[in-house]
């Protein structure tokens, strides 16, 4: 359930902050994205919970299994599924293309390749953000627990929450600055119809968040 809630929030954020080139009145964009989003959320939540369900189903209770399944595996899975939901919800952007502009802000065309680049960059930044935010605190908490710095479960939970908050606060600007909001793409990487409409060597697009 918590996996479902988390991916619902991040998917809604992605839906609201994508590139809005394709208008709703021209294409049933919102309806398609909502259906895609619901499917992506359900899939991501199930994949995120699968290792724990597998461990409980087959009663794998060794310390190594507990460490891998409960501490180490959830973070990369969460990062991967966060990137997956971005790619699914924003798939109309590389299916239909996004606007590309010259240095003066004049729109010179709609490019699928620019849309693909924008979605890939956003998905990667989202994976780095959530993967790191949940991996580092889990790893550090494990060492704190082994060293017995936190004497009670409440103290350990407080330490873990502090670590998650600190890493998230540090990783958020890193994630947002990995790729510029106004992305660049070389003219030679674009479609032939755009090549014929401008002489600019570099064009720009809105990446979204």
UniProtKB/TrEMBL annotation:
Compartment list: Mitochondrion membrane
GO cellular component annotations of the record: mitochondrial inner membrane
Family named by the database record: Belongs to the sideroflexin family.
Single Gene Ontology BP annotation: amino acid transport
Membrane topology: Multi-pass membrane protein
Gene Ontology MF, one: monoatomic ion transmembrane transporter activity
Designated name of the protein: SFXN4 protein
Keywords carried by this UniProt record: Amino-acid transport, Membrane, Mitochondrion, Transmembrane, Transmembrane helix, Transport
Keyword hit for Cell inner membrane: no
Membrane spanning residue stretches: 34-55, 67-89, 123-144, 156-179
Pfam family, any one: SFXNs
Record bears the keyword Transmembrane helix: yes
Chief location bin: mitochondrion
PANTHER family: SIDEROFLEXIN (PTHR11153), SIDEROFLEXIN-4 (PTHR11153:SF3)
